[in-house]
Amino acid sequence: MSRPGRAWVLLLAAVLLQTALGVVWPSGIWMPDLIAAAVIAAALENDRLTAVLIGLSAGAWQDISLGRLLGLHASLWAVLGYLTSALRQRIASDSWPITAAIAMAVLLCERIAEWAVLTLIGVTAPPLFPLFGASVVTVPFVFLCRRLLRVRHRGLRRAVP
Question: How far apart are CA 69 and CA 47, in angstroms?
Fold first, then answer.
């Protein structure tokens, strides 16, 4: 399976796991955002078009499932997917500190932009501090998703220890 194909499968798995996790863990404040981790990992491993399409699809799913402001998450994740993929071509992102910094920056940009838009239009938005905590919790899942995208077919059993 090619990398874009793996990215789509990873996004589907992240959506299913995030939905199941939301049922078990309904507070959601410090819950990792698996969909965001899949989008960031796909953007770090694929070209710009794939990153935009995956970001658009993931954001559309979040818009539909959250039910507020259709298009907000879709547009944010499409733009951030494009920018992350473009940044990856300029910066060697194979080391874990650089990957963590990129993932944290993307997550914080998405959280701040979402909060700003919701606040500007008068929708009650959660406070920023817990959203930053959720971003920190999500970063290790970016590493896991990126590892799953890089594994060859025969090494898939050894991907997750």
Answer: 28
Q: Is the dihedral of CA 23, 12, 109, 122 positive or negative?
A: negative
End-to-end Cα spacing for the chain: 22
CA–CA gap between residue 15 and residue 47 (Å, rounded) = 21
Task: Report CA-CA distances (Å) from 51 to 1, 7, 17, 27, 89.
Answer: 17, 9, 20, 29, 13
- Single-letter amino acid, residue 105: A
Q: Is 11 exposed, middle or buried (0-12, 13-18, 19+ CB in 10 A)?
A: buried
- The pTM assigned to this predicted structure is 0.87
For residue range 129-147, list pLDDT tens digits in order. 777 777 888 999 999 999 8
Handedness of CA 29, 35, 38, 39 (dihedral sign): negative
> What pLDDT, on a 0 to 100 scale, did the predictor assign at position 1?
42
